[in-house]
Amino acid sequence: MSLTASCETVSHKRTLSDLLAGRVVKRPKQEDAQRLQEAAIQLLEQQQNICSLLKEVGNPDPYNIFGTQNGEQKHAVSEGVTSATAGSLLVCELRRQALQLGVPAAALSVKMILERLMEITGSEEEDQMGGLFTSSQRVQLCILLESSRELLSQGALCPKLLWQEYRRDQRLPNLEVVYHLHFYNILTLKYIIESDEEARLWLASQLKALCGWTPPQGDEETKQVQQKVLSTVVGVLVGSGFELSQEPAAADRRASLLCCSVLDDMLFWLLDTVEKTLTPQCAGAGADLWIQIFNASLCGASASVETLQRFFTHSLTQTLTYKPRLTVSDAITLQNEWTFAKANRLLTSLFRKLAVIFSMEQLLCHLQQVLETHEVNWKHVLCFLSTLLVYNPCAQLSLRELLSRLLSSAFEGYDLENMITAFLLARQGALEGPAIFPSYSNWFKMSFGGASGYHATSKKSLVFLLKFLSDLVPFEPPQYLKVHILQPPYVPVKHRSLLMEYVSLAKTRLADLKESVEDMGLYEDVSGAGGASLQPQCQAAQDVEKAVSLFESTGRISATVMEASIFRRPYFLARFLPVLLTPRMLPVQADAWMSFIEALKKADKIPAAQYSSYVESCQKQRQQDGGAVCLDTNDEPLEVLKIQLQEFTQLLVEENDGEMSAQLSRISHTLSVIFPGCPDEPIGQTVIELHTNTPLSPELHVKVVNMILRNFCQCLLDASRANPPNKQSLWASRFVGALLGNTQLVSGLIHRLWDLFHNQGSSLSSAHLLGLAAFVVHLHASMSLGPLVQLVPHTLLEPVPIMEALSSALVCSRHANMLFCVRFCVAAVCYGICRGDSLPQQQKQDCIINSLYKKLLYLIPRLLPEARGAPITVGGPISDHQEENPPGLWSSATDANGTWRKTAWHLWKHPAFRQLEHMPKYQVSFSEWLAIELRVQRSEDALSDPERQEYQQWACWELYLPRPEEQGGCGGDTRILYSHLLSAIMDQQLSNQSLEKSETGTCLPDILSRLQELVYDMETTNLSGSRGSSRPDVRDLLLETLSQRCSSSAPPGINAELSLLHTLNTWNRVLLALPAVLLVKMKSEGGRETLECDTLIEHVNQHQRKACSPIGLLSFHLTSHLLRGVLSAGARCRCPREEINKAWSQISLRCPLLLVSTAHWWERLSPVLSSLWSRLCDGETLPEQLQLLADCQSWACSLDKGLMSSPMPAAEALLLAASLHRAWRGHGCDNQGFSAALSVLQPERSTQYQQVLVFLLFLCVKDHLSSLLYPQERSHQKAADLCRDLLLPLVDSADWLLVFQPNGVYQSIAMVMSDELTRLMPWAFFSVLLQQSGELLQRAARCPGFLHTAVLCYVGLLQLFLEGHALKPATEPIQMDPFQILSRSKQFLLRAIPQTSLTALSSGRLRQLESQCADLDPEVAAALSVHLAPQSLSPEMDFL
């Protein structure tokens, strides 16, 4: 090797390391190392260049500074050249050349380092201006600085001289060079700042340039270096600028001020950038990068926590007081534009970074301090408050406390600054929506609306408040003026004039703004959250919808509407009524809108002309009017919402909790644009109508709702991949809470969820199922913020919470919807239990929806037979049915390979699930279980008939019978079980219009079978048990149930009558399915069993006569059932025939309806009863009293055929008459046979004959009344002729009048018909009488007591008309119209009164008739008084 070779030649051939490594082929001895080193130094002294030497002492591969060498190279270097060796080489050469040149070695080293630095950076340094080096440059720079550090360690380098030479000629330092000098501890940044007088200028400019510089795409290493440079520089600046020392030197104070100044310059640069740009994209990456520097973890590496807090506090103060150009009046006017959603995202990100290390109390206290001591930038102050409220759920409470302190201080010292601060902060909170902070109207009402308000302590305080509000008027947005007018502060009556002055001023200001008071809505959004007010027509439309909704839920016109019709009449007439009376196609049945209009009309609130015009327009309307749209919403907000939801999903994946809250605020703002005009209701709670048969109509709303639900499902899946629900953030509850402030959106969500649950459940995928289940859990947990729901049609009587309404969509009537319901409920309850693990005990139940939990208690045992085992006792030992450590519920629910059966079984065994069953609101009572089971469609059930029987028997006998009553069971009492079964069957039949459908479609036959099994068991227990023991009495329970249902508290009327009729018909169907013997009691008298028919007789007289069809006649099946019960019970007695005879004698005397019905149906009853009695009594014939029925039937038939030889049986006159009536009806109403019978039964021949004819007349009048009520029954049309034929022999006797006024021996006929039909007898009286000949009428008028009966019947007829009884109009020409009957009845009376003998009425009866007619018909009363004057009456007649 030539010793004169140049540096370049040497470097191109072999480097120093290579050269030295090549010499170590053989392993030298330890003593040879020193000789080798001396030889190397001697070699280097031969004209070696230091610049080349600096290159060679570094890594042999400068382009792989972080790479590893192979084993031989590492060994060679470790054995050869060490860092100490390289340093020694450099020092020796530097000192040798310095000695030759006559300069200090430190100066020469600085010169050589700077030359090498310039060689590395080249001429690009001036051009980069804040840019960073390339990767190769950075490697060479690190090698240089590593060598420089070695020189420094051996005293061959002066750092101060290095910096002086570097800064010579005003060269701007490269920030990356400064960073590496600091990193290699050659020159610390703190020293540079302290020693360089111009550091403030170049450091700030370099920082800005570095922030604005963008690394090459894909160069992650350079990005990391950029971040390290910035964070290191800022860390030093923060540590130097904000570290406190006991007695700082002058230089330290100067450096501290310089660091603060640099940081402030950067902050102001950032704020200037934010102010000049509308969006973060316009600001570029520089501002956003500097905001990221405000990271506690980055800055905290170089500064203590206390120092960092001082820096953040200082920066926050500087931000809040930056360019305080806006006045308070500007803030009042522009505040609506400074909400979180409208604020620049860079500014809110800065506030979030600055607030992260402080508590909410510290932040608000500092805010208060800044407001009290500085001129502030109100836009920044209010945006800062919005950021705190959005990102921190606990901020609301802290802000309320701050507002309370500000108001207290304001009224104590009458301080306007505190007053205006409180108002601005409260309004800013309200602008963020009800999910973030109460509305301004609520805050103002709570603060000043009552006698305990801040202003209510003295007149001076009141004047102070009103003066303050008056001063705000010129700057106030209209919505706040409306708050103060609609909800004024509390003012004592004696100071009312002060308030009226302010109200007058506010109304004037509203008029100047073209928002007159008359256009203010009745239920207007006065919170300020909506920004500008709605157009008057849109506001009026909202008022109408709210008023109709309140009317529908309460049944009354709201006080707000009534007050508006008086005190705000211009708005009511010009705005409200035109919207309410918008023409439309009216529905067949009146809806809530029509009913509200009618109510207003009845209250004289709608002008007659306006109402007439509305009716005419509606009649011409051919299409449903879709109504006006307040806002023309195009597709642009939809695209914005789509992007925002996608960004929210990405934030969720990144677990950026704070930014998620901010994004939700932006989403909420976008939704308020798509769903405009959703007021914060000032009174009551919002009620949403859920139209179950009508889908959501606007296409845009459908798209938005679907987008929201899909996004929530996707978010849940993404979040669940990382963590189970109990370890997730509060994103889901905040997501749902952000939706509840928009009533229109909530309405759309509810309609969509109902449609999905009720109609599309089977088509939902597992992912959708899990997402929707979690959604409704959070919807339920946020119920305090949510509205109520009214189902339309009204299947629920009153508005209910959202989840209760949605639960009704989850029906369990068919196999398909049972499967969907159990899958959905399992997912919801699993999610709720898992979510509740991370919550306090009192909040856990909010995550588990009781209605869904109840459905699982019903469905899981029904579909999983293994779940019907012994119940698991909370806190007790773990049985075979319960796993000690069950698998994770959520992992089981989200397992793609699992089945719903497996998940449901795991859930059923989970202790948390079982514990809930012991809480009342999570228990399914027996009556609830029955109601659900009765809705199951048998033909589409998941269970077969035998499986269903087994399940129902388990539920009745094993589950609910032993369960305590307080837990919804029967407490072991079969009577309670019986009562529940009977009530459920009755309710089921009453709820179905078609009884046949209810029997064949639902599980009613199955539950009826369970009732029969229970009755059989109870009856068997009674027969086998001891007679003296207390045992359940089935018949008493049976009749008690009927009495409770028939004793309605509803006012009498058609609806009450129909309801009673329906109840009794339903009852009879149940009764016919039970043993016939139930209604007949057996009692022991003197050691023998006797029948007691009191229960049966009372039942027929009290209830059954009210539901007869045809009139006054029990059905054949019911009659047969009752008689079979009597015979069956009698057969159990020791003397059956005797007991049956006694029982029938009682029935004949006390139960005329059963007697008449038995006679009517005897032809069909006879073989049934004879066969039964023959089986019960070993072939005996019927007892004598029943045989008498057959005799009466034979006698009546022979008489009807004209056979006069048959003797009259010794039976009751009513029974004989009923037999004759049946015989006549059985032969097609043959008048000839009837006349033959009358010729035999001459009343003058026998009293019994007369009684038979009177009873027969009653039965014919009953038929005639039936023909009047039901003209379609053609068989009754001849009843009037038969009545005439019967009147001919009876008209001269007073007994026939007792048919219409029962008394004495004929008293029993009053118990054949219901009381309602008995009231119609006056109609039948005149209807029959007025069809008779004049001669017969004259004879009737001479009959004793006729006038008294006729006047009473006329009074009764008048009362029928006055009470609104809808009597049937005539359908036959021979019949008279009811109004004709009334008119002719009066004429007949007025003619009959003068013809009546003066002695026909006693004075007492006359006065009674006069008093009854005086109010109803004074003319008839006057006729009675004139023609039958008391002076002419016989005194002795008064005693009659």
Task: Give a nutshell description of this structure.
This protein is mostly helical. It contains 70 helices and 5 strands.
Question: Any chance you could write out the topology, listing elements then pairs?
Answer:
Layout: H1 7-13, H2 16-22, H3 32-44, H4 50-56, H5 71-79, H6 83-101, H7 105-121, H8 124-128, H9 135-153, H10 159-166, H11 175-183, H12 189-195, H13 199-212, H14 220-242, H15 250-276, H16 280-293, H17 296-299, H18 305-320, H19 328-334, H20 345-355, H21 360-373, H22 378-391, H23 395-413, H24 416-431, H25 440-448, H26 459-472, H27 478-486, H28 496-512, H29 536-554, H30 559-567, H31 569-580, H32 592-602, H33 608-620, H34 636-653, H35 657-674, E1 687-691, H36 699-722, H37 731-739, H38 743-759, H39 766-781, E2 788-792, E3 800-801, H40 802-807, H41 815-836, H42 841-844, H43 850-863, H44 889-893, H45 900-909, H46 911-916, H47 926-933, H48 945-960, H49 974-991, H50 995-1001, H51 1004-1024, H52 1034-1046, H53 1054-1073, E4 1081-1085, E5 1088-1092, H54 1094-1102, H55 1116-1131, H56 1136-1150, H57 1152-1160, H58 1162-1176, H59 1184-1200, H60 1213-1226, H61 1231-1240, H62 1247-1269, H63 1279-1290, H64 1315-1318, H65 1321-1329, H66 1334-1341, H67 1346-1362, H68 1378-1395, H69 1403-1416, H70 1418-1427
Parallel strand pairs: 1-2
Antiparallel strand pairs: 2-3, 4-5
How would you explain this protein's 3D organization?
This protein is mainly alpha-helical. The protein has a 3-stranded mixed beta sheet with strand order 1-2-3, with helices on both faces. A two-stranded antiparallel sheet has the order 4-5. Strand 4 and strand 5 form a beta hairpin. The protein is elongated and about 175 Å long. The N terminus and C terminus are likely disordered.
